[in-house]
């Protein structure tokens, strides 16, 4: 039997731990996030972004992506982060549409 327990729930992000009673030594950490509000906010901010501002927010990055980058060490790698931000597949999270 699979058992899930919520560790934390903040806004649109839930952190769960999952285990199987057949093998109690194995646990899985699951991070779930409702991305629709984040994508809608990014679109709204795009429309109201001041193009003359010196300070421009670039994107909203999902918590699961940040967590994975921290685990694999790429969060500190600016080249990898820029590649993720400039990737066409991640365009829905972008606020400022210029190249990073």
Structure description:
The protein is of the alpha+beta class and 100 residues long. The chain has two domains: 1-33, no CATH class; 35-100, no CATH class. It is 32% helix and 28% strand. A three-stranded antiparallel beta sheet has the order 1-2-3, with no helix packed on it. β2 (13-20) and β3 (23-33) form a beta hairpin. The longest helix has 13 residues, at 36-48.
Provide keyphrases for this structure:
3 helices, alpha+beta, elongated, 32% helix, 3-stranded antiparallel β-sheet, 100 residues
In short:
With 100 residues, the chain is an alpha+beta fold. The protein has 3 helices and 3 strands; from the N terminus they run E-E-E-H-H-H. The longest helix has 13 residues, at 36-48.
Secondary structure topology:
Layout: E1 2-10, E2 13-20, E3 23-33, H1 36-48, H2 63-72, H3 78-86
Largest sheet: 3 strands, antiparallel
Alpha-beta classification: alpha+beta
- What is the beta-strand fraction? 25-35%
Helix count equals 3
The number of distinct β-strands equals 3
**Numbering strands along the chain, what is their spatial order in the largest sheet?**
1-2-3
- Reading the helices and strands in chain order gives EEEHHH
The structural domain count equals 2
Q: Outline, from the CA principal axes?
A: elongated
Helix content estimate: 25-40%
Question: How large is the radius of gyration?
Answer: 17 Å
In terms of per-residue confidence, which ranges show pLDDT below 50 for 5 or more consecutive residues? Answer: none
Please tell me the overall pLDDT.
91
Distance between the termini: 47 Å
């Amino acid at each position: 039997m699979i058992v899930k327990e919520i560790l934390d729930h903040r806004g649109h992000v839930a952190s769960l731990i999952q285990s199987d009673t057949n093998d109690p030594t194995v646990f899985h950490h699951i991070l779930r996030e409702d991305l629709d509000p984040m994508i809608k906010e990014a679109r709204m901010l795009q429309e109201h972004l001041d193009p003359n501002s010196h300070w421009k927010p670039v994107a909203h990055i999902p918590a699961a992506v940040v967590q994975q980058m921290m685990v694999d060490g790429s969060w500190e790698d600016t080249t990898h982060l820029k590649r993720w931000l400039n990737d066409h597949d991640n365009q829905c999270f972008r606020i400022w549409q210029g190249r990073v």
